[in-house]
Amino acid sequence: MARKLTGLDIYKLLPRTNCGDCGFSTCMAFAMQVAAKRVALDKCPHVSEEAAAALGEAQAPPMRTVTIGTGDRTWTVGGETVLFRHEEKFHRPCAVAVRVPDDLPVEELAARVREIGELRFVRIGQEIGVNLVALEHRGGDLRRAAEVARENTDLPLMLMCEDPDLMGKAVELCGDGRPLLYPATPENYAAMADLAREHSCPLGVRARGAEGLAELTPKLRERGVEDLVLDPAPDGFLPTLTELIRIRRLALKKVFRPLGYPTMAFVAGDDPFDLAAQGAAYICKYASAVVLPLARPEFVLPLLTVRQNIYTDPQVPLAIEAKVYEVGNPGPDAPVLVTTNFALTYFTVEGEVERSKVPAYIAVIDTGGLGVLNAYADDRLTAEVIVKSLREYGIMDRVSHNKIIIPGLVAVLKMEIQEESGWEVIVGPEDAAGIPAFLRNEWKPD
Q1: Which of these ranges, 85-89, 211-215, 432-436, has the smallest mean pLDDT?
Q2: Dihedral of alpha carbons 205, 208, 214, 219, sign
Q3: pLDDT of 276-285, one tens digit each?
Q4: Where do you find CATH 3.20.20.20 in the chain?
Q5: Are 300 and 96 in contact (CB under 8 A)?
Q6: For a FRET experiment, which of 40, 77, 170, 389 has its CA 20 to 30 Å from that of 181?
Q7: 362 beta partners
């Protein structure tokens, strides 16, 4: 097990000139970041070969970064540096894959693959979707399945087959597409490693628990394969979760190199609610790839939503540009709704305005990415700020009325805004879900 270097250990091997070329003000600050595995040593352009050799592998990030696929849909996993989001953040969202058996008729297989590729959703202004198609050998023709998949999706592939000969025939059809090959086991690892090395593909490794994986990964590295994704292959949900946590802790806290790779987990069962719960738990703790058995939107979307929430920076609110947005084709009689620039708040309001079928303007106030109540409590959403922002936007010059609608949660600001601006202030619903009925029944420009 590698000794974890301290910032002082690394500092002693740096030029100690405080030149700032690495992006940090001092060599000590840079050394502390290297020790925390947040930056690589080669960010210092003046580090000597002797220092790099002395540090060796010890300064490398504790978890390897692995790329699956090529082109626009390439997906990168791993490279994480912390156990908990509040310490920093999780950097690379886990891949979500859906299994497709290779024994389906060609037409059904093609339709299934297209269905997976079309599982795309827009949430808080971001497109989210499935990332991999996992072709599983179940006695069919894996080579044919790979060919059909390549013709019907541009998503990267995961090829699942224990027979290296069959795997070799399938991977040849993928060209330079870098599919994830799975599984390399204690029985077939030599042949699978040769395939992965020959075709420059990442390799999924399956062994019993952290101990079995720790024995197998050095053998694969000796055969020239570095891009590995680990499957601890336990039986059942709780053992899987336990092994994922063990591997993550050993990799990051103990810098145990044989386990310093991204991991994967397979969701199994028949109950959709149980499947969703499993997938959400694996995404949170700590799978870098989650393989699902089905592609139903009502099952996939909640997992993608969990992933989107987990892989944001908890220290930086997700914000949008503060300005006036148009929903529909609003004219001079359209209502003006006020909200904050917290992304989730804005896109929720926008969705409800669209649902109302009433064209409207949404005036977004810069609150530093805080929601309505938090912004009010922090004095970022005040009568003065609202009036100043609306005047800067010039929105009241674009409408034929003098009315604005504020969130019901800050109804207390009504009189102060009216006195400050001379506009008529209407208190809207406290909950965005009430916006459609409010606009249809309550909005009157005159």
Answers
A1: 85-89
A2: negative
A3: 999 999 999 9
A4: 65-310
A5: yes
A6: 40
A7: 325, 337
